[in-house]
Amino acid sequence: MAKLISFLRLERMTILQSFIALNCVYLVAVLTAIVLEFEWAERIRQRFAGHPSGDDWVLPAQILAMLLTIGIGVVLMGSLFYKLKLKKPLEILMDASEKISENDLGFHVSYDSGDEMSVLCDAFEKMRSQLESNFKALWRSVEERNQLNAIFAHDLRTPLSIMKGYCEFVTTYLPQNRISEEKLLDTFKTMEVHILRMERYVEAMNSIQKLDDMPIHKQEIEIDTLIALLDASALRIAAQSGKTFDSCRTADSTRVFLDMDLVLQVFENMAANGARHASSHVKIEYLLCDGIFSVTVLDNGSGFSDDDLRMAVLPFYRGEDSEATEQQGLGLYICKVLCEKHEGGLQVANSSFGGGKVTARFLC
Predict the structure, then answer these.
(1) What domains can you pick out in the chain, each with its CATH number?
(2) How many CB atoms lie within 10 A of CB 311?
(3) What is the arithmetic mean of pLDDT over 160-164?
(4) Its pTM surpasses 0.85
């Protein structure tokens, strides 16, 4: 039978071709069997020609044998056709259907025979692949939405904390007339900047779909104005953590062209991270050179471990210390994504003094 199948090449034929080929084989086999049965019946008839009981029973026996031959041939032909052309692909498709119903799309449908069932399996594989792609896209969308919600909640805390600090400062010293009018106006202007930032942030939260869709709005700004705003935020963040702070700068230009809100968002995450891990002091280094604005935050803490250096910029990585586990692990990941959106990058390392060192670069 295997030699016959190989000779006829049934496995490479289409269903119709294999059905016709098997029918031809079936007809040849049945006709041959019927001819042999006629010869057998004729010999029986001649043998029992003079027998007292006669040979009347030979014809019904011959007819019965022919019917049995035809019936057995049909069953054998149908069984062979099913086994060769239908059984394996149907089992493959049934198994694939069960896996899909269980939301398991990590498999492949493969059946190479060159017939219609092979085409059907290929179509099923395309459907599975598309379902897997759609499922992954949906999952990414859900994850990004959840990630964005966590990011927004994380980043709104810093400007709110700064605003709270300014409010406490004003309510404490204003009744005592210990604040000059100039200092009061300067405080209110700084608070206004953060209020406007939060308004724009909330508007972005309502319209943004993915983190990569966050718009970039560059504007020209004096480097002294930008650094003064960054220093004010860093001073407030360090003071809230009970740490000291200082900064230095090197610049080859007096103006920069960048998204101030984005830079502030990255900077506040870096400064909060540095203040959290510093033992007592945080240092900020500003560098403007060849159209690249860099901000480096250094702390005098224990520095990053080997695992931290590998995974610090991954989302939701909190590190091993107990204080970090209270955070959401999004700060440096946010910085990395936003720096890349501003055509820059983020680098995490340890300083030569042993503390942590995080550098953000922005194309300006």
Answers:
(1) 2-104 (no CATH), 218-364 (3.30.565.10)
(2) 17
(3) 84
(4) no
